[in-house]
Amino acid sequence: MPARNFLLYAVPALIWGSTWFTITFQLGKVDPLVSVVYRYVIAGAVMMGYCWLKGLPMKFAPRQHAFMLGQGALLFGINYWMAYRAEEYIPSGLMAVAFSTIVFANSLFGYVFLKRPINKGVLIGAVFGLSGTFIIFSKQFFGIGLTDEFLFGAGMAMLSVTMASLGNIISARNTGKGVPVIQANAYSMVYGCIITALLGLFMGKEFTFEYTQTYVLSLLYLSIIGSVVAFGFYLTLVGEIGADKASYALVIIPIISISLSAIFEGYQLTWMTLFGVIMIVMGNLFALRKKKPISVTN
Fold it and tell me: How far is CA 55 from the centre of its chain?
């Protein structure tokens, strides 16, 4: 793997490995949808400011804006609203596991919408990786009853994965059509903020704010580091190697989440945890090997 691609993999994986836990500090007095609006008010403003300072070209055709609107709605709006709602009912680690299934969705949607062949190595690697994450969180899986609340949270989690994957595909399409990643992200974050704000107003949400150090610092971390920095690296990777392979950076996020939990929350590492980590590493080796794509046409 080229050093540049390794960096593009590592940075978003390290950041997003911590954001699932950080999101828990956003849950409470402020409605999750409103928190997502605040997150992308900040992220969109930072991105637009960066584009202005750099003097980047910001004029695009109406059709290009339409696709950036779609990217924003799915990747920087509805996706995160559903993720925040999911974490009200399921553990953040379980949400990280659910999100790692995006590797399958990206491969499928990439074939359907972008006519990209399905890569056998990615699918085999994803099976190993997902098996590892299920092993790591097996105690959580079997220790949680299938209550209505848990099923609702799991459903929201999978809808979040679907929306994020479709957003990835639109992003890959935008990059393929020559829209620069930075400008696309800037406009998409602004569009995502506007759409979620309008949705909140339509649903009668109360736009309150929690003036506590925990809420404000977690909001800034999610907005600037979790959104601006991480998405800049990740969507650059999507444009260079495709959404299916790029999404494998998300499969290793549970490992990072577990490491942080062991350091800061006293999570007890076990042999099952170690075995799960080994499975995920093996999955990486399969996914990153150069394999011929699977032919899905007659």
Answer: 29
Both tokens of 61, joined, read 């055709």
CB 39 within 8 A of CB 260: no
Read off the pLDDT of residues 236-294 as tens digits, 9 standing for 90 and up.
887 777 766 776 666 677 778 777 767 775 666 778 877 877 887 777 667 656 554 44
> Which tokens hold the place of 49?
């400011």
* Pick from 80, 75, 79: nearest CA to 27: 80
For the chain, helix (H) and strand (E) counts, in that order, are 16, 2
Cβ–Cβ under 8 Å, residues 118 and 283: no
Domain spans in the chain, listed from the N-terminal domain onward: 3-292
Question: Dihedral sign, CA of 4, 232, 164, 61?
Answer: negative
Nearest to 87 by CA among 171, 184, 21: 21
Predicted structure pTM score: 0.82
Predicted confidence (pLDDT) per residue in 86-129, tens digit? 988 887 777 877 777 777 788 788 888 888 887 777 778 778 87
What is the DSSP-derived secondary structure letter of residue 199?
H
Using alpha carbons, select from 48, 6, 4 the residue that is nearest to residue 182. Answer: 48
- The three-class DSSP label of residue 294 is strand
Residue 246, token pair as written in the block: 């790029």
- Backbone angle region of 204, left / alpha / beta, with phi > 0 → left and psi within -120 to 50 → alpha: left
Structure tokens belonging to residue 158 = 């999978």
What is the largest distance, in Å, between two alpha-carbon atoms of the chain?
60
CA distance 108 to 114: 10
